[in-house]
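sorry to bug you again but im stuck and you know this stuff better than me. what follows is a protein written twice so to speak, once as letters and once as structure tokens for the fold. mainly i need to know what kind of three dimensional shape the backbone takes. anything you notice is useful, everything is just below:
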Amino acid sequence: MGSKGVGKKKAPETTHRETEYFRELIERQQPVRVRLMDNQEHTGTLEYFDETFVRLTRTAQPNLFVFKHDIKYLFEV
């Protein structure tokens, strides 16, 4: 009756799964497509990442360093 919020926990800010997932993609050399906030898309493999950006290695095109805040989403191809 008066137990407002009991049993409900706030979701964590981060699960740290992003780091694990990016490491898996790099190890498997899994091709990915990155869609940016301006709807540009780029395809390649992740070569490196840190807190602020990812390096996308592309075939027959220059590699890209993409800031994470510019990524709308990333998916495996």
User: Anything to note?
Assistant: The chain has one domain: 17-76. Strands lie at 31-36, 41-49, 53-57, 64-67, 71-76. The longest strand covers residues 41-49.
